[in-house]
Amino acid sequence: MDRHHSSGQVRKAMQQHGLRFQKSLGQNFLTDTSILEKIISAAELDSDCCVLEIGPGAGALTCELAKKASKVAAVEIDTKLIPLLSENTAEFDNVTIINADILKLDLKRLFLEEFDGKPVKVVANLPYYITTPIIMKLLEEKPGLSGIVIMIQKEVAERLSAKPGTKQYGAITLAVNYYAHPSLVCLVPPDAFVPAPKVWSAVLKLDILEKPPVSVVNEKHFFHLIRAAFGQRRKTFLNSAGNYPALGTCKEDIKKVLNKFGISENIRGESLDLVQFAQFSNELLQLSLYK
Ligand code: SAM
Predict the structure, then answer these.
(1) Which atom of ligand 1 is found nearest the CA of 29?
(2) pLDDT tens across the length of the chain (291 residues)
(3) Which of 66, 103, 114, 235 is most buried per CB count within 10 Å?
(4) Non-local CB neighbours of 197 within 8 Å, separated by 6+ positions
(5) β-sheet with 145-153: strand ranges across
(6) CB 68 within 8 A of CB 59
(7) For atom 14 of ligand 1, which residue has the closest CA?
(8) Binding site membership of 25 for ligand 1 (Cβ less than 6 Å)
(9) Distances (CA, A) of 187 to 34, 72, 184
(10) CA-CA distance, 183 to 206, in Å (whole number)?
């Protein structure tokens, strides 16, 4: 691991290009080479691998990915960073830099154009202000991913493995565990970055599941039910789901379902697990069919 990475060098290179770190874009660049090594090792890359990097910044991770993978597409939103990024990755002919907002890209199309539709690994130090929308986009669009290794805030990583009834447990916990198996690679202190963020970070691996761990009749309805339950998490599940128009369900039906499974009508959505959300969604749909 090499020359571009010390914090002094990154600051100097930014200055030479007349650049400032954009806090609003989550620009905290990784300078700790031991963490870069851990990310690369967790990604288990070989010379056949296609990699999407989200937010390459000055290119520290991009260069390491390019050494191991067949091809790297790096999507960076900040137009001003592109000349520095191009300079730092110039020695690699297997890197394509795409100046775009990841949230606005059609991933299936991108993968077809850049990787001929082959399976793709996402390896990234994510911009923290949009961690959840990026994770949800990767999982929901199902563009053909063979793995995900991402650096995110420690608090968000904790939410992904949180247990029902805890403060950290939320809609993102359920969504991620529906599509993937999350595991912690390592924790990362603020001083691994320049500038140092206020929070600790975590490198997380998401192994995409071949099929979800629960059987769901209608995924759209299932996710609406989850959103309803966590949109107003201090309310009972009965009230929050019963007053959520997109679900098209009534309180009477919700009561029937709760009774059927022997669950109290006072339960809050935050106490329900993945299996229960799947059961409730399937049952509610069944009831609405017979109206
Ligand atoms: N990969 C670099 C590293 O590890 O040093 C930089 C990581 S930094 C935490 C996040 C990067 O994401 C920044 O370069 C930022 O400009 C970029 N970014 C922010 N929002 C983005 C978006 N919507 N689409 C693509 N890139 C984005």
Answers:
(1) 5
(2) 444 468 889 999 999 999 999 999 999 999 999 999 999 999 999 999 999 999 999 999 999 999 999 999 999 999 999 999 999 999 999 999 999 999 999 999 999 999 998 999 999 999 999 999 999 999 989 889 999 999 999 999 999 989 999 999 999 999 999 999 999 999 999 999 999 999 999 999 999 999 999 999 999 999 999 999 998 888 999 999 999 988 888 999 999 999 999 999 999 999 999 999 999 999 999 998 766
(3) 66
(4) 28, 128, 190
(5) 95-99, 71-76, 50-54, 120-125, 145-153, 201-208, 180-188
(6) no
(7) 57
(8) yes
(9) 12, 25, 8
(10) 6
Could you tell me if the CB of 193 is within 6 A of ligand 1?
Answer: no
At residue 125's C-alpha, the angle toward residues 123 and 126, to 5°, is 105
Q: Is 137 in the pocket of ligand 1 (CB under 6 A)?
A: no
Q: How close is the Cα of 252 to the center of ligand 1, in Å?
A: 47
The position carrying tokens 């020695």 is 91
Pocket flag, ligand 1, residue 143 (CB < 6 Å)? no
Query: Which of 153, 140, 211 lies closest to 181 in space, CA to CA?
Result: 211
